Amino acid sequence: MAYIIGYPITSILFYIHKSAHTQEVLSIQLMASATVAVLLLLNFRNKINNINLALYTVLTVTLFHAYTLWKIPHQTYERETFNIILVLLFTLLVVRWNFRYALISALVPLLLLPAAIYLHNPASFTRFLGEGGLFMIGAYLLFPYVCRMRYEKDKREFYLRYTLQKQNEALEKQKTIAEQATRAKSEFLSMMSHEIRTPLNGIVGVVHLMMQDGKKNNLQSDLIQTLKFSSDHLMAVVNDILDFNKINSNHVQLDPIPFDVRALLTSLEKTFIPKAAEKSLELIFKIDATIPSQIVGDKVRLNQILTNLIHNAIKFTEKGSVKMVTKVIGKDEKKVRLHFMVIDTGIGIPYDQQPTIFESFTQATLATHRQYGGTGLGLAITKELLHLFGSEIQLFSEVGKGSSFTFSIDFPFLEEVPQQEPVVLPETTDTYSFARVLVVDDNPINLLVATNFLKRRNIQFDTAVNGLEAVDKFKANSYHLILMDLRMPEMDGYEATRIIREVNRTIPVVALTASAFSVEKERAMSSGFTAYLTKPFLPKDFYDTILPRLSREPLDSASPIEVE
């Protein structure tokens, strides 16, 4: 299109200089444009491709221009050579030719244009060379090489872009697959969490109820203890798997609060004394007296880290001792650096296995797994939790001589201990005799466990097997508190709680669910629930959750508490 329109316009130059050959030049140029138009039509009909169209167009214009130079006398060739070089630059900018096409498009003008001028008048040829002809010839000689360099460069860039595009497409596909796999894993674990925790809650609850019943002979007591050990072990395995999934899904965030780390360590020591005594191990806790009374950090996650390390130390130590050392190794005006060491005299870890001991589902040897059991997730979870604290765990171990796990964490600390009002929970069984609770769960075992826990505190209760029945009972009676399962047929706990909140915004509604995922908890708390109790729950957790929220005053049984 540029040649079809632009080439005839150059006849204006002849008109401006009042050349007698203006009409003749315009006729030649219009014929050239018509020929190029025919080539364009053939290209439009897919008779010739784009590259050939460009080459044939350049050759066509060159032939007609050579004819013009042969037939039409020129007073000067400066403008002619300048225009030809401009056309050459335009061609270089527009086309993407390989060396062969570029060579053809350069050789034809190099032969035809000087020859046409020479045939017109040999004296004109000398004048042409002096008025830019040599520069034009040099430009045409360089044209094929410049085209080749540009063609190779474009080919490399195209290959790079094509390769990157393919890689991006492959990465995008892998990203989609990974996201789908992660989503499927989360959904699977969420479902499995509910399906495993629901019956496990029945097992744990029934075991604790049986342990509180004093009418047992020695065999029955041994069987109950075995059942309790198995249920505790199963609960630990489930919790490890869910914790590992939450950490890998970036769903775990630290919750820093002020706490007394010495009290935490003292509590840990009391917790593990019975386990160490069972294996006749010496349990030693050394706590630096200069530790600030209140540090700020995630107490729950720090407790989980230390519990994993101490539990492993006791499990893999048959004789000797397990030592827990905590000391201050640095302190400024705002932060204190605490160094923790868990040292045992156990079986040790082979040197070649130490780099992989913190990987998921990994234990030192197959024999270790067979002898001591476990999921192989404890150390992997510990390592990832320490990353959240900005710390790394170090391992020093020798086979047969024991192991030492160490890490350091920077904690902000408080100079003044915040005053907290003590929470007093009465222990007498008749304190809550006026309390009335609605227990909503579609699983009969869970209803049995929860209601038996209530019976042991003489707490009155009603039951419902779905949200619809719960709403009906709530509207017909008065309750101090509602224990609400989340997943139920006919109407789930979310919808039932929404309806209850429309009537009463203050009644405590505790989510009773087998889902331990933070997303589910956040959804429940934002949907009007007062608290969140995860199955399987121990009696202490159950009572700690509901007792502070129960009233000691009797309610009017005729109607529920109305919102003012």
Task: Describe how the helices and strands are arranged.
Blueprint: H1 2-9, H2 11-16, H3 22-44, H4 50-71, H5 78-94, H6 99-120, H7 122-212, H8 218-248, E1 257-259, H9 261-278, E2 282-287, E3 294-297, H10 299-315, E4 321-331, E5 335-344, H11 366-372, H12 378-388, E6 394-398, E7 402-414, E8 436-440, H13 444-455, E9 460-464, H14 467-476, E10 481-485, H15 493-503, E11 509-513, H16 518-526, E12 531-534, H17 539-546
Parallel strand pairs: 2-4, 8-9, 8-10, 10-11, 11-12
Antiparallel strand pairs: 1-3, 3-7, 4-5, 5-7, 6-7
Task: Describe what you observe in this structure.
By secondary structure, this protein is an alpha/beta fold. The chain folds into 4 domains: 2-167, no CATH class; 188-248; 257-414, Histidine kinase-like ATPase, C-terminal domain (Heat Shock Protein 90, 2-Layer Sandwich); 436-549, Response regulator (Rossmann fold, 3-Layer(aba) Sandwich). The protein contains 17 helices and 12 strands. The protein has helices at residues 2-9, 11-16, 22-44, 50-71, 78-94, 99-120, 122-212, 218-248, 261-278, 299-315, 366-372, 378-388, 444-455, 467-476, 493-503, 518-526, 539-546, and strands at residues 257-259, 282-287, 294-297, 321-331, 335-344, 394-398, 402-414, 436-440, 460-464, 481-485, 509-513, 531-534. The strands form 2 sheets. Strands 1, 2, 3, 4, 5, 6 and 7 form a 7-stranded mixed β-sheet that branches. A 5-stranded parallel β-sheet has the order 9-8-10-11-12, sandwiched between helices. A hairpin with a 3-residue loop joins strand 6 and strand 7. Helix 3 packs antiparallel against helix 4, helix 7 (122-212) runs antiparallel to helix 8 (218-248) and helix 9 (261-278) runs parallel beside helix 10 (299-315). The longest helix is centred in the N-terminal third of the chain and has 91 residues, at 122-212. The radius of gyration is 44 Å and the shape is elongated. Residues 361-375, 421-429 and 557-564 have low confidence and may be disordered.
